Amino acid sequence: MHVLAIVWHPNAKWDALDDKARLDYLKSLDDYINRGRAAGAIVLGWSEIDRTLPKAPTEGFIGVFGLDSAAQVHEFEQVVVQANWYEYFDSRNFAINLDGATEAEPHKVYARLLGVPLD
Hints:
The chain starts with a strand and ends in a 5-residue tail after the last helix. A four-stranded antiparallel sheet has the order 2-3-1-4. The protein is of the alpha+beta class. The protein contains five helices and four strands.
């Protein structure tokens, strides 16, 4: 499974909106999210980030989406652009293709990722 994680925080333009404008914008996101779902995206969820951990990001929130391919990640990210997300939220996006969920010897996954030859 490919995963797109969008780590985000409201910016000054968001802060300048009144509550009605904020709610109207948030409601408009439903259509974009549902368009992504129709194209195969799985919404894994949204959350406030626990910033009590050492090395936690400075951003306050995250949205996580599951997709079938790297191409689908890029298609979904274009939906985010079309929703004018980046106008109101400063974001860092991470796209990953998870490996090793059932690996009994996790060091093998690290070795593959880091290019360390296995004996």
